[in-house]
Amino acid sequence: MPDAANDPDGDQAGLVLAWVRVVAATAYVPRSSTEVHALLTGLLGRLTTALATGDSDSSVGSRVGELMVEGALTGEKTLEGSLGVLADGLADAGFGARPVAGLLASVAAGYAAALRKRTLAQQENMKLALLTAKQRAERDRRATESRFREVFDAAAVGIAITELDGTFVETNPALATILGRPTEDLRQRTLAEFIADDDEPPLVVGEADRRRVVRPNGDTAWVYLTTSMLRDDNGVARYRVTMVQDLSEIQLLGNQLSHQSLHDALTGLPNRLHFESRLEAMHAQTPPERLLTLLCLDLDAFALVNTTYGHATGDRMLRTVANRLTAAVEGKQALVARIGGDEFAVLIAHESPPPEVSTLVSALEAELSEPDYDGGGVGLAVSATTGAVRCTKAEMSATEMFRAADAAQRHARSLGRHQWTEFDAHADRAARKLGTLATGLPAAWENGELRVAYQPVVRLADLTTVRVRALAHLPADRDTAELAELTGLSVPLGPWLLTQSAEHLDRWSARFAPVADKGEAVQRVLLSPTQSADADLSATVNAVLGATCVDPGALEIGLDTAAVLGCRGDAQDNLRTLSDIGVVTAVHGFTGGPREVAMVERFGVRTVVLSDPFEGWRPDWLPREAVPVRATTELIAALRSTGASVGVLGVRDHAEATWWAEQGVRTAEGPAFGCPGGVDDIAPGRG
Amino acid sequence: MDRAGADATSWVPDGIDLERPSAARLYDYLLGGAHNFAHDRELAERFIKAQPNAREIARHNRSFLRRSVLMLVERGVRQFLDLGSGIPTVGNVHEIAQTADPTSRVVYVDYEEVAYAHSTLMLADNPLATIVQADLTRPQDILDAPQTRELLDFDQPIGLLMAGVFHFVPPEKDPAALVARYRDAIAPGSYLAFSQFTRDLMPAEMDRVVEVMKSSRDPMYPRSLAEITALFAGFDLEEPGVVPTALWRPDLGFDDGGDPNRAGIYAGVGRKR
């Protein structure tokens, strides 16, 4: 036997390295090279030992093949490559070709058997893994099924799964209850057998239909039937599912829902929708000679109560009003409803000659104005603005009545807070005319019916008229500017107003000279948003001033705050240019946001006209510590610190004027100082 | 089950579509495993035709995974999140890591059913390793999975493994944002081991492979060296940077004499800052 076989450090070491290289190039072995080296050295040792001892038993070779597979030396070309280097290496080491070939053949056989076993094991493993996964899926499916079963059995709705011909396949307990029969009695029968009206057209899939079912005692009961199809994987209809709802139960539920949809949750009173139908009904049932009175009440300054005292207080106030109105008409054939956020309606069908409407309204107002004290001791007296209508049913339909009371209420509102008016056809016509005026304004413009009117502007410090405001005026009692904005006539109206009023500029200058402070403007024009944004505004003003030779400082022009702030059109440029020309710049519609204040400072605006900060509520009646009051006072101070003077509109009387004066407001307009009039209606001096 | 050939496939869960080959089963076949179906093997043969080096590439990638896990273990990392772990064949991450330290914890993630089913079975008795069946492009699903939260401590360094999987993430899934999402979830001192196919090394073969894989449920998107390096944003690359898998800290005793540039896949490991 050659010595080489016993020389592990000689050629065999080279052979191991060659083998390692074959393995590295053909198989992924999850070991380090050192470990692989040791493994192959061991395997080679087994082979050389077998050859050296002439052991012809094939088990050594096949064991080496098995160990190769176990060691993951299983790349596609690993066996081939390994046998190659082994054949060459062993031959070089001097072993006989025949024994080597025999040994390597048994290596190959052992390798193949082990690999087949491993492959089968892996396949078996995968099969097991997938089977487990499938079982889990099935378990989930069974869980789903049992959940479905739970729902099916516990549902209050009757459920029937039927063949396409209607034969029951499965029914749930609820269906048995609805049909009044035990489940066993339903087997092999069809749903149609239990339907009373069998001449009805068949049920349409997906649509609910109302049918009667017959119970064993011959009674019938209304049910809702809804049917749908169960389809198999290929989309072919296999079964029909029918849901059967007992209508008598739905009826009960429906009643509850209808109460909720017809009543106001806060006060428990009927809501507007419900009121309209009740009004209709009462109107129809009232004998022809009897009178009906309908009052629509709108609470004054309710939003202010909400913001000042909080919503809880607001809600309490609404409930109080509801209770008091209900109490006030108790014993009468009457109906109280909440028809809006802060609006209530009272409908009375009089059985005997009724008291005057004014008496009725006064009685309700007295009831409401009684202060209501809550735990915190805040006493809230409520006032309302009321519209009333009284008629027999022949005179007006229910709808007309409601509309009339509403119109009267709005008319009363236009007169101020805490007012009431009874509907009269004349006032209604006037209001309707206002509506037509808006659309008729272009015609009035064409026909030259528009006039310039002047309203006094008073210096609050001494209540002296120091200025006038020019307004476009129609004979109807309504600020035209608002209408103009609605009809699109606004832009031409701006230059028109400036030009027309300019005629009187020098007259005003002369008239106010004795009383005016130095540099005080004598005429004010407040422009609408569209006019404020007009690109031709400064050109118009220049032309007007050029034609009159009056100092530009005599004219005060107010732009709309929102238009300037929102960079509408050329509004910001206009404000700058007017200031450059020397006109007294003003902004109106000022609500007092920080950006608005910053704008006043940035543009050096001379006059700021506040937009009604208290929603028409009298500020002199509000507590000094109320947040809106404090905020307004601080706003006025902030504006004055920028050098602007502050003006207000719509001042009702001298008490209110004094209040504003105390807050540092400089000028005011309003009913307290006179309404719009002609040139000769204005006198300088005390208003 | 009433489809034809029910006997042959009755053990296959309904969710598995035997007609559509999967990358996980193809990879298993390339590594010499038997966890695959006829359609997978057919695809694999087309893959090998397009890229004759396919087996070597798979081998090198698997070796990179092993070497990178061993390196992370050396650096003290004892928990691993292996995204796109595939079918467990030989040399799985938990075997490598738990051999080094039996307390190592591993969460595997794969969305392929066979990979999931197989891993579930294999890990049934291993309380420190588990698999989440999820799509790696939905990081929240994985990071929030109860198994993940139970096994991994996100306050301690984690070995984030994305070996040979990101080439299945299309550009519209925003790969950079995906990696970032995982990066942000792991503690500083964590590692990212990353490898993916590139066109830089063997463009013609890669183009053919992309074409072949279009018919599978896992189409491929090779990336350039620059694109792959960019994915390591927020990580400090460990030596030798992003290189062909065969050149990443090779086991010199395993030199197969092949050209390392034929590894087809770039690999790198980075440490989170």
Would you give an account of this structure?
- The complex is a heterodimer of chains A (687) and B (273).
- Chain A has 687 residues and is an alpha/beta fold.
- Chain A has four domains: 3-124, no CATH class; 158-252, Beta-Lactamase, CATH 3.30.450.20; 261-423, 2-Layer Sandwich (Alpha-Beta Plaits), CATH 3.30.70; 441-686, TIM Barrel, CATH 3.20.20.
- Helix content of chain A is 48%, strand content 17%.
- In chain A, strands 13-14-15-16-17-18-19-20 form an eight-stranded mixed barrel, surrounded by five helices. Chain A has a five-stranded antiparallel sheet with strand order 2-1-5-4-3. Chain A has a five-stranded mixed sheet with strand order 7-8-6-11-12, sandwiched between helices.
- The longest helix of chain A has 58 residues, at 97-154.
- The model of chain A is unreliable at 1-9 (pLDDT under 50).
- In chain B, strands 1, 2, 3, 4, 5, 6, 7 and 8 form an eight-stranded mixed sheet that branches.
- Helices cover 38% and strands 15% of the residues of chain B.
- The N and C termini of chain B lie far apart (54 Å).
- Chain B has a single domain (14-272), classed as Rossmann fold.
- The radius of gyration of chain B is 18 Å and the shape is globular.
- Chain B is an alpha/beta fold.
- In chain B, helix 3 runs antiparallel to helix 10 (203-213).
- Chain B has eleven helices and eight strands.
- The interface between A and B is large, with 34 and 38 residues.
